[in-house]
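Phenylalanine--tRNA ligase, mitochondrial, pasting as requested.
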Amino acid sequence: MLPEKYPTDSWTNVPPTILAQYGRRLHVQPNHPLSITRKLIESRFPGFRNHNDLPGIVTVHQNFDSLGFTADHPGRSRNDTYYINKDTLLRTHTSAHEVDVFKANTSNGYTISADVYRRDAVDRSHYPIFHQMEGALTWDRSDFKTRQACVDQITTDFEKLPKHDLVVEDPNPSFHAERNPLQEKHHTPEEAEIIGAHLKRSLEDMVVTIFTEADKALAAAGQGSQAEQEPLKVRWVEAFFPHTSPSWELEVWWRGDWLEVLGCGVIDQPLLVRADVPDRIGWAFGIGLERIAMLLFGIPDIRLFWSKDARFLSQFDEGKPIRRFQAFSKHPAAPRDVSFWLPKSNAPVVANTPAAASSAPSPAGGQQTEPSLDGAAPVFHENDLMEIARNTAGDDVEDVKLIDDFVHPKTGRRSLCYRITYRSLEKTLTTEEANALHERISQELVSDFGVQLR
Ligand code: PHE
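Structure tokens follow.
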């Protein structure tokens, strides 16, 4: 529950299901897989100050403006973000605290781990609350006689970082005028170059640690070590974040796929100026903890992290080596389809392009809520169905997927069909229970969005 009473207004869109989970603090719960994952990552950044208690309700300013998000950035949309009211929201990323932590100026390196909130797809790897860890390291140019002396120090620090035998693909230049620019006004090429190198080597080291642990757990479970077949491999991909430049994403080759694990870059200098530490230069990253924990422990469904079931919780022990999660009885799935005609007045439906857990509120994933025509039903966005499904079925909904979409050639009306898969983690849902949930969701689509069921 929210710790205080906040005024609501026309921006308010936080549902009771989210409020009920607010404050669970899974990332610090002893022996919880998210806490074990957090500690494992923290252990690779010795000397960093770890902030694990920053409250999840922040201002729009902290979450977006302080980081240099433009006024029209799609991440601000009510389709993607949970607003408590027009000025206050549930943080969408741990970067919301960057400026405050830089301002407090109590350490050169820090991590921030916390719960973050995003309206998003319903499937086994997305949940509207997840956890991120932010990490940053800066050097203070005013500690050195010359800028070159600061570069020399970063170089020395770089050389002291642990070496690894990871295969690293990094085909792009350290920065690129159009695709991934150097902050020319603020950094010399040498500064950006060495900060980028230090950042990449530090994160590669973290990834080696995580994936070596994951691989050991696999081998111990008799599920075959990946490293025995091919060496661990990562690649750096150019990226964009409003608060870093140049920016990258790190992808890891894991069990036959490139997996995006984090976003990072050279910290935007105007941000550091706003934080009253104009002489500091450095790097930052953000990583999604669920995704890492899922592959470390082999946890197949993101809803499990929220389980209070001893069959889940008793499997994790922070004093012991990582062990693969043993699935307990899986209850059968109950898929149901809902097809409907959209009202004519509905704007084009925007589908989710699920952003990776670590990436910024997806630039492609949403659009501003269209004001509804006078008297007409509010405009339907795919996330509205996700939200109705979660609010009605809670954790008994596993997946919501668009399976058909067509426009009638004569009337021009658009029809959508979604498949909603119900499955409880705790019991078998009866036909009647699944039908009742489905009926309530269908009726809410009618009453809230004026759709016509087919
Ligand atoms: N804040 C970004 C996100 O949520 C991740 C990030 C953090 C990127 C720090 C760069 C530096 O997705």
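Note for the archive: The chain has a mean pLDDT of 91.
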